[in-house]
Specification:
heterodimer; A: 346 residues; alpha+beta; Rossmann fold; OB fold (Dihydrolipoamide Acetyltransferase, E2P); 2 domains; five-stranded antiparallel sheet; 24% helix; 35% strand; elongated; B: 291 residues; mainly alpha; MetI-like fold; two-stranded antiparallel ribbon; 77% helix; binds adenosine-5'-triphosphate; binds magnesium ion
Chain lengths: 346, 291
């Protein structure tokens, strides 16, 4: 049974619908990411779960109980804010202890749990520091410890890593994942960084303009994107305009001079999309010319001008000779590596 | 860099601030020094001011209990005014800050509006409402049979505190308002998610963070109230004197300038000590919140 369940949740601000028809069920212990561009409603959704905003429509349930009927102070969720929202007049230990105080945890147990929580996030010895005297990464850890120490049923993270520099962010990602694995708290992470979502989560919820585009594991969303938006948003992709012709037998899928037997189902104009690292150079296939060739250490990046528009190809640097700039090539790929979608012809 | 250029660089700040500095010295420091000097001069009913150095005025202030009482009254009124503005102004600023857009600017205008009206006009307003038997409010309450004699307001310390608090309120509200702007917008949500109720949030999270704002507002209100002239002059008149009105009377009515100068100097020195001292205390106490 689903642990946390969002059932056709919607949120309107005045006439503007910011989140619509949002349904998701989260299993216990799962790590879910909300991924989408700025302004797509990720924070709004998270705040509805937290209780800072009331949904206009729909229901949110935790273990079958209606969560919207419970006051935010009683929901027992752990939240890490994008700005951390630490209490600047309290030390790190006092910050972490605050939630336990509110729960009337006895003083001795409180001290022990605060110490353990700070140690878990690698801040043993920083108990008496004030937040303003800590680095961004340290503040972020205090915020995490403060949210985790109350043993929350669900941990909600609103872009907790976006204020950190790239290296620290990577370290914190690994640490966050480890902590989450160890204590097994159900976690929802809001992010607009696709790498972060892919490396941390069990499942990703890709959002666009307040709607869910796709829910799936990182691999699924990357390799079988449900829409053009998802494939564009998760990493680079090549979209070729093609067509399926069912007037011949066997039916053909064609793009430029490239053609294969058509998959069942679709007809007429289609979009064929293939990830750049799945394209190879061969003897037959889509005609193209290499425009630029960029060496990037462990791989080569080729920008090509193909019969169906610009294309990007990534090849492993396996030591073999690679085509040079200006060379005419043929692009090939396995049919299981491409996804074919119907295309609107304007 | 050559020595000459270095010297020019060192002189540049002085040269650039010279006009302002000269104005500062000319209109503030020199009159101030002259006032201090004046307080050591002698004065007699018939001989006028004699430029000698004596401690007569200071001795009079130190020994005559009239002055002790008057200074004590001045600071008592200033302290009560400060407390009243803090007790009303801090919640006022907090509520104002939580209002939504349009109401916020409307009420902010109402609170700051009085700053645009002369202190004299505002204080006279209070006098019209509460002044003796003819005060509007007193008349209403008496004709309604709620009170038998008019509420004493004119020539009372209560009246002075109320009128001063009204005049000083914008300074407190603005100061707390500025402190509220520095709060993390999610801080209340953070406390709430950890299980804190509204009262706890205000007491444990909001209050400690806006306290520096309240205290700096208090310093402004205190020093302005202790040296206020117009309001005490209208409400207290000759009957209930404070330091500023006493100094004025000595200067313009008794014409004992040296004694007036001594009173003014003492008020200034006391205020400087109180303000600088409490400011240092606050900064030490709230080092973490200020940074
Ligand atoms: N209180 C509000 N009143 C009106 N509109 C709002 C309010 N809060 C958010 N919105 C709008 O809702 C939309 C979604 O906002 P939200 O904060 O959920 O985006 P987000 O996905 O978290 O974006 P980001 O990645 O930039 O944080 C935005 O278009 C925003 O303008
Ligand atoms: Mg957001």
């Amino acid at each position: 049974m689903a642990y946390l369940e969002l059932d056709r949740v919607a949120k309107q601000f005045g006439a503007q619908t910011v989140v619509d028809d949002f349904s998701l069920s989260v299993g216990k212990g799962e790590f879910i990411s909300f991924l989408g561009p700025s302004g797509c409603g990720k924070t709004t959704t998270l705040q509805m779960i937290a209780g800072f905003l009331d949904p206009t429509r729909g229901a949110i349930r935790l273990e079958g109980k209606d969560l919207t009927a419970i006051h935010p102070a009683k929901r027992g969720l752990g939240i890490v804010f994008q700005s951390y929202a630490l209490f600047p007049h309290m030390t790190a230990a006092e910050n972490v202890a605050f939630g336990l105080e509110m729960r009337n945890v006895p003083r001795s147990e409180r001290a022990e749990r605060v110490r353990a929580a700070l140690a878990m996030v690698g801040l043993a010895g920083y108990e008496d520091r004030h937040p303003r005297r800590m680095s961004g990464g340290q503040q972020q850890r205090v915020a995490l410890a403060r949210a985790l120490v109350i043993k929350p049923s669900v941990l909600l993270l609103d872009e907790p890593l976006s204020n950190l520099d790239a290296k620290l962010r990577e370290e914190m990602q690994i640490e966050l994942r480890q902590i989450q694995r160890t204590i097994g708290t159900t976690t929802i992470l809001v992010t607009h960084d696709q790498n972060e979502a892919m490396s941390l989560s069990d499942r990703i919820v890709v959002m666009s303009q307040g709607r869910i585009e796709q829910i799936g594991s990182p691999q699924e969303t990357y390799e079988k994107p449900a829409s053009a938006f998802v494939s564009q948003f998760l990493g680079k992709t090549n979209d070729f305009a093609g067509a399926i012709d069912r007037s011949v037998a066997p039916a053909q899928l064609m793009a430029g001079s490239w053609s294969v037997p058509a998959p069942p189902g679709l007809n007429g104009p289609v979009t064929v999309s293939i990830r750049p690292e799945r394209i190879g150079f061969g003897d037959a296939g889509l005609g193209a010319k290499i425009v630029t060739r960029i060496f990037q250490g462990n791989h080569w990046l080729f920008q090509c001008e193909s019969e169906c528009g610009p294309a990007i190809v990534i090849r492993q640097n396996d030591g073999k000779a690679q085509p040079v700039e200006g060379e005419a090539v043929r692009l090939t790929w396995r049919s299981e590596d491409m996804s074919v979608r119907a295309r609107d012809v304007a | 860099m050559s020595a000459a250029a270095e010297e020019r660089d060192a002189r540049a700040p002085w040269a650039l601030t010279a006009p302002a500095l000269m104005l500062f010295v000319g209109v503030l420091l020199i009159p101030l020094a002259m006032t201090v000097m004046l307080s050591f001069h002698d004065w007699g009913q018939y001989k006028g001011i004699e430029p000698v150095f004596i401690l007569k005025n200071w001795h009079e202030i130190a020994t005559d209990p009239y002055y002790a009482e008057m200074f004590w009254r001045t600071f008592r009124i200033a302290i009560l005014t400060t407390l009243l503005t803090a007790l009303l102004g801090a919640p006022e600023a907090y509520i104002l800050n939580r209002m939504s857009g349009r109401w916020k600017s409307f009420f902010l205008l109402i609170i700051l509006g009085p700053l645009l009206i002369s202190v004299v006009a505002r204080t006279l307003g209070w006098a019209l409402l509460f002044g003796g038997n003819n005060g509007l409010v007193n008349k209403l309450l008496m004709s309604a049979g709620l009170i038998r004699s008019p509420i004493p307001f004119m020539f009372t310390e209560t009246g002075m505190v109320v009128a001063l608090a009204h005049v000083m309120m914008p300074f407190m509200v603005l100061s707390v308002w500025a402190a509220l702007q520095r709060l993390d917008p999610q801080i209340e949500n953070a406390a709430m998610s950890l299980g804190a109720g509204p009262a706890t949030i205000i007491r444990r999270i909001i209050m400690p963070q806006i306290m520096p704002g309240v205290l700096s507002g208090a310093i402004i209100v205190f020093s302005l109230s202790a040296s206020a002239f117009a309001t005490p002059a209208i409400i207290g008149g000759r009957r209930l004197k404070v330091a500023a009105t006493l100094a004025y009377d000595e200067f313009l009515n008794t014409l004992n300038w040296p004694l007036g100068a001594a009173v003014a100097t003492l008020l200034l020195v006391a205020l400087v000590f109180i303000v600088v001292g409490s400011n240092a205390l606050i900064e030490r106490r709230y080092a973490e919140v200020f940074r």
